[in-house]
Amino acid sequence: MAVCEVCFRHCHIDEGKHGFCGVRVCSGGRIKAGNYGKITAAALDPIEKKPLARFFPGSQIFSIGSYGCNLRCPFCQNHDISWSEQAMMLADTAEAYTPEEVADAAERYRETGSIGVAYTYNEPLVGYEFVRDTAKLVHDRRMKNVLVTNGMAETEVLETILPYIDAMNIDLKGFTDRYYRDVLGGNRDMVMKFISRAVQDCHVELTCLIVPGENDSEEEMRQMASWISGITDAQGVCIGKNIPLHITRFFPRFHMKDRRATSIPQIFRLREIAKEYLMHVYTGNC
Questions:
Q1: Which of 188, 203, 196 is nearest to 53 (CA)?
Q2: Residues 81-137: pLDDT tens digits?
């Protein structure tokens, strides 16, 4: 048995078994990433799809994903590669690539206007070793690395990849412990610490999916935007007001197919509240 140190769960994993995320595995008494190099999805995406609104707008980026996640969002739009039964079957069927092969592919796409590689679709940090190794090669070739993450990782994990990451979109899925704990199976405090550290060394944008009846109150948005606005850099200078926030409309998905979609007026109302604190607020799925 060994203990995984990637996220707040600190799973105790028996030899040959996987942790909660379905990726971290105990092998020879050590924790490894069982999904290393295993790519389940790849596409050339607009940078705005990450979403990033203020990082090389109008460009494209080579986007890759694997399988596994350390959250259990009941509305997950990528559940087939994140945490459904189908996702866990990908351990044996997903094709494996080396970091060099991904960097080579990114270089080829560069000729068509791509700026680098985005690690996305599932939760990249449950297999952070592949992100680290690939991002270093991409960085050395003077291309950009973008991480799309739920921010559910220890700062020690973040430190290993941060030297090579140019931009992140981090999900700040709500601003109550109840929502993170009871609905998502996560830890809000860990995400907030992750965000606070990430903004010191790379471009960061945040995304909040508004789910009716869960995280859609005006007071919660006010508290979230206020906290974001107070984030400081390494020198203690307040930079939070310039952090972009994407407020996104929910549609019924996965285990929340019985929920109604977020109303468009509600999204725009929450945007106006956020704009009381933040300079750059965007709406999504409207």
A1: 203
A2: 888 677 677 777 888 999 999 999 999 999 899 999 999 999 999 999 999 999 999
Domain ranges of the chain: 36-284
Q: Determine the longest span between alpha carbons in the chain, in angstroms.
A: 55
Q: How far apart are CA 266 and CA 208, in angstroms?
A: 13
Q: What does each C-alpha distance from 223 to 217, 271, 276 come to in angstroms?
A: 10, 13, 11
Dig out the tokens for 220 from the structure: 């919660």
Question: What count of other Cβ atoms lies within 10 Å of the Cβ of residue 235?
Answer: 7
CA distance 145 to 63: 10
* Distance, CA of 15 to CA of 56 (rounded, Å): 44
Give CA separation, 97 vs 35, 41, 134, 219, 272, in Å: 10, 12, 10, 46, 44
Q: Model pTM?
A: 0.97
Omega before 51 cis (within 30°)? yes
Looking at the domain that runs over 36-284, which CATH code has it been given?
3.20.20.70
Dihedrals phi, psi of 2, to nearest 5 degrees: -145, 160
Which of 258, 169, 177, 182 minimizes the C-alpha distance to 208? 169
212-222 pLDDT per residue, tens: 999 999 999 99
Residue in 149, 134, 144, 131 with CA at minimum distance from that of residue 59: 144
- CA pair distance 10, 2, nearest whole angstrom: 10
Nearest one of 169, 166, 81 to 126, comparing CA atoms: 81
